[in-house]
Every structure is written in structure tokens, then in C-alpha cells.
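Hi Y.,

Following your request, here is the sequence exactly as I used it, all 115 residues.
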Amino acid sequence: MNFDPVIACTLGPGDFQTRMRWIADLNGRHLKAQRRDGLTLHLSYQPAALEDVRELVRRETECCAFLTFALAEAPGEITLAVKVPEAAAEASETIFAGLLSQAPAPAPARACGCC
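Below is the corresponding structure, written out as C-alpha cells. Let me know if you'd prefer a different format.
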């Protein structure tokens, strides 16, 4: 028998927030480009991110087994394609938004020195 994976993230709320911060940090340090093609998100990372991107795939495969990941190494970049199944098409915006999290920009320095 073939069972389709459940279309749901298995992380609890606190773990989910921790994961989003981790992804935002990774993306803030290494994400070079992103492109969406229907139900597939293509992410391009700096080569130095290889181990972190592998860890991202490992972690996300555990909590979101319904996603398909394809990791490729090329000169000068690491590419990751993340595909959402047709059954989860309505949730694709939300899913991809999480994978595109960015670390917040540092607050601008104030000339008055009060902060």
C-alpha cells in the first residue's frame, strides 16, 4: 500500500518559531537568490552554506515530509529546489514564506547616541 504523507508541519509553536529564526539567520547570511516556478521554490545559496543547507533539508524533511527537496552543488553556488505537492497548493504561499524568512535588518544607528 502507498500512503501519502500528511500535509502538515509537525513542529510545535515554540519549535516552529525557533526554526523560522534559524532559517532567517541562514538566509540572511547566505541566500543569494530565489525564484518561484509554480509549486517549486528555487533557492540559491553561497557555497559556504552547504552544511547548513543540508541541515535545513534534514530538519524540514522530518517535520514536513510532504515536501520534496532537491539539493545541487555547482561552482559558486548551492541550489535547493523545494516542491509542494498539488494537494498542498493552497498552502504553498505560507510554506514558501517560511523558507524565505530573512533576518531582520539591524536598526539604523542614531546620530544623537540615545539608543
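The radius of gyration is 16 Å.

Thanks again,
Q.
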